[in-house]
Specification:
single chain; alpha/beta; 8-stranded mixed sheet; 7-stranded mixed sheet; 29 helices; globular; binds (2S,3S)-3-hydroxy-2-methylbutanoyl-COA
């Protein structure tokens, strides 16, 4: 590896006249303080070392620097900063080559952008994902990147936060070469060629030629507006646009200063704190202390029972991850209907350029439809996605138990029902658990993994690993009706109906949540999902929703009948208020002796969110969820809770549990609904002046 400098995490050796500086800070070589110290020390030494004519900057382990150390954010800044390290590299009169592999992201890519040349191993993915943390690149990325790849490419990379593959980076001018085989050896020989060919050392920050042709600010603003309009409520996208605009309008030093000021403002803000909370909570949510040593089984083949909306989407997840999957239906008609939808989805994605024709055909070919249940016999995992009825599911589980191979994992995609009861309808309850996908399953990132009383650690570990392989965010929950997400959603739905009777209209209630940052409110969402689904559920449980029930009795099931809480034009999904619904609400309130009066947005928001937060506290107390962060991840990735607010439990902490408690007391009093009484855990934390965060992420 070489001799360490002031930091054990960074070392240097010489290879045939080339100084090779290596960072080794597992797991992702985050550029924490000690790394920056070591880098500054060794770059300065290499710059002055008469025995070396060039410098290679590389990393040990699975990736080049994947960014600044996010755990350092919010702490007092410690010198040197990443900017100081990059300036030291830029001041070096010898060629400095960055040798990239894995995922050079954020500050890691900015470090490489400070080097004279960048080479990469095949499979490297390069990006500036800061926007996903509610910030912008803060070490020169908004100035150096557009000077290499052009303003449009830079805008796409910075505003989407998505990485690009090495080939695309080479074509865009971001890297100079892709090196097969030994990366360091390739970098050293590249460095020698630079020296022998006396190639000019042009810093990215001085390469204005790519910007010269892009100084059409009107075009820039129009392109930027396309991004920012989709980022309602978020601060970082507009800041990224302002920083990028500086590349077209300001001298580079001033533009770098503006970038830094914008970065410092955002990193200290609530939105970034919330998104950083979700970054770490997402990684914690898949961890279960008591199965630490359990080995996940290899999943080579899968099977899905049911080709309905969810079944088809789940099959696509497996096919997208390269896993052959059998889809079993009860009839040929139902099967072809389901597979036609799958094919149509793939064709639409390919038509939008989201998939090559080859890859589309490869994925479709991995999905084998059948009406023969024995086709699941060689599957390593079977996911049941049939009609949401306990009797039907238990019958299916009995059959799966008899056919599936002995070490298969048998999962149910139920969104409410008792996993333990399903497990008991087999002779292998240890192999049974819930894998609750969210519709559309091939799009939604959340996977609620429901651990049954008998589920074995291996079964659970396997489901978590499968979830990750399918690109999902697994969150482990216990068994109760509706698990975590739907159980909390029930409280919000009840309150939403109450607000209608008390004085609001569907568009008012939905507006309160969309203004808060949700993509859709409860009534528009109910119309999208189909009011009849909830109606059937309520009838089965002896529950009622005064307005929704009456709408269903009138055959108003939402978008699919062009009438629900709203009216819809044929072929349109945009909801229009309906006077008939308003009259129904007014009449129902009158029948119940409820005097309707105007409700404020803030009041409606608190009435919709606080009861579900309270239920979240009960869920924690019962151990159905392990951590408050798990609940936040579930709501952000499964129910559209705005990520820049950090999820319901994080949001509650930002409001203050004392206030939430007091408001709940008031709601309990005004509605007479005891469920609004503050749960013991919330009471306890509020009384202690603490937040949910005090329970750990
Ligand atoms: N800082 C601190 N810890 C990090 C980290 C980071 N940047 N990245 C990952 N970790 C931890 C993570 O919490 C987990 O910990 C472990 O590493 C493995 O991660 C100046 C200011 C690199 C693609 O946003 O996207 O630079 O759970 O489970 O699935 O402009 O991690 O094991 O205890 O995710 O293989 C910009 C963030 C920062 C990249 C690897 N960089 N990381 O994914 O492993 S802002 C990022 C990732 C910045 C500059 C600004 C992914 C990964 P634990 P993992 P993975």
């Amino acid at each position: 590896m070489g001799a360490p400098g002031v930091s054990e995490l960074v070392s240097m050796r010489t290879d045939g006249g080339v100084a090779v500086i290596t960072i080794d800070n597992p797991p992702v070589n985050a550029m924490k303080h000690e790394v920056r110290l070591g880098l500054l020390d060794l770059v300065s030494r290499a710059a002055g070392d008469p025995d070396s004519s060039a410098v290679v900057l590389a990393c040990a382990g699975r990736t080049f620097v994947a960014g600044a150390d996010i755990t350092e954010f919010g702490q007092p800044p410690r010198q040197p900063t990443a900017i100081a390290v990059i300036e030291a590299i830029e001041a070096c009169l010898k060629p400095v080559i960055a040798a990239l592999h894995g995922t050079p992201l954020g500050g890691g890519l900015e470090l490489a952008l400070g080097c004279h040349f960048r080479i990469a191993a095949p499979g490297t993915r390069l990006g500036l994902p800061e926007i996903k943390l509610g910030i912008i690149p803060g070490a020169g990325g908004t100035q150096r990147l557009p000077r290499l790849v052009g303003i449009e490419k830079a805008m796409t990379m910075i505003l989407s936060g998505e990485p690009i593959p090495a080939r695309e980076a080479l074509d865009a001018g971001l890297i100079d070469e892709i090196v097969e085989g030994d990366l360091i050896a390739g970098a050293v020989s590249f460095a020698r060629r630079v020296v022998t060919e006396k190639r000019p050392l042009v810093l990215a920050r001085n390469r204005d030629e790519r910007l010269a042709s892009a100084r059409d600010l009107a075009a820039f603003d129009a392109a930027a507006a396309n991004y920012t309009k989709r980022a309602k409520g978020q601060n970082a996208p507009a800041a990224a646009v302002a920083a990028l605009r500086g590349a077209l309008t300001l001298p580079v030093a001033d533009a770098l200063k503006r970038e830094r000021d914008l970065f410092l403002e955002l990193v200290a803000g609530d939105q970034s704190k919330a998104q950083r909370h979700i970054f770490f909570a997402e990684r914690e949510a898949a961890k279960v202390a008591d199965i630490a040593g359990a080995k996940a089984r290899d999943i080579r083949r899968a099977a899905v029972i049911g080709a309905g909306t969810l079944g088809g989407g789940i099959a696509m997840c497996f096919a997208n991850a390269g896993i052959p999957v059998a889809v079993v239906e009860t009839s040929a008609e139902a099967l072809s209907r389901g597979l036609d939808t799958v094919t149509r989805n793939y064709r639409n994605t390919a038509a939008r350029g989201g998939l090559s024709t080859e890859e589309m055909e490869a994925r479709i070919a991995r999905i084998a439809g059948t009406t023969d249940l024995t086709a699941i016999a060689d599957a390593d995992i079977v996911v049941e996605a049939v009609f949401e009825d306990m009797g039907v599911k238990q019958e299916v589980f009995g059959k799966l138990d008899r056919i599936a191979k002995s070490d298969a994992v048998i999962a149910s995609n139920t969104s409410y029902l008792d996993i333990d009861a399903l497990a008991r309808s087999t002779a292998r309850p240890q192999a049974v658990l819930g894998m609750h996908f969210f519709s559309p399953a091939n799009v939604m990132r959340l996977l609620e993994v429901v651990r049954g009383a008998a589920t074995s650690p291996e079964t659970l570990a396997t489901a978590i690993a499968v979830g990750r392989k399918l690109g999902k965010v697994p969150a482990i929950v216990g068994v109760c009706h509706g698990f975590v997400g739907n159980r909390m959603l029930r409280l919000r739905s009840v309150e939403a109906e109450r607000l209608l009777l008390e004085g609001a209209l569907p568009q008012d209630v939905d507006g309160a949540l969309t203004d808060f940052g949700f993509p859709m409110g409860p009534f528009a969402m109910a119309d999208l999902a189909g009011l009849d689904v909830g109606w059937r559920m309520r009838k089965a449980q002896g529950l009622s929703a005064p307005i929704a029930d009456q709408l269903c009795e009138r055959g108003r099931y939402g978008q699919k009948t062009l009438r629900g809480f709203y009216l819809y034009e044929p072929g349109s999904r945009s909801p229009k208020p309906d006077a008939e619904v308003e009259q129904l609400i007014v009449d129902t309130a009158a029948q119940r002796g409820i005097v309707r009066s105007p409700l404020g947005k803030e009041t409606m928001l608190e009435r919709l969110l606080f009861p579900m937060i309270n239920e979240g506290a009960r869920i924690l107390q019962e151990g159905i969820a392990q951590r408050p962060g798990d609940i936040d991840v579930i709501w952000v990735y499964g129910y559209g809770f705005p990520i820049y607010r950090g999820g319901p439990m994080h949001y509650a902490d930002s409001v203050g549990l004392g206030y939430v408690r007091d408001q709940l007391m008031a709601f309990a009093h005004s509605t007479g609904d005891d469920r609004h009484r503050p749960s013991p855990l919330l009471e306890e934390l509020a009384a202690a002046g603490k937040g949910f965060a005090s329970l750990g992420t």
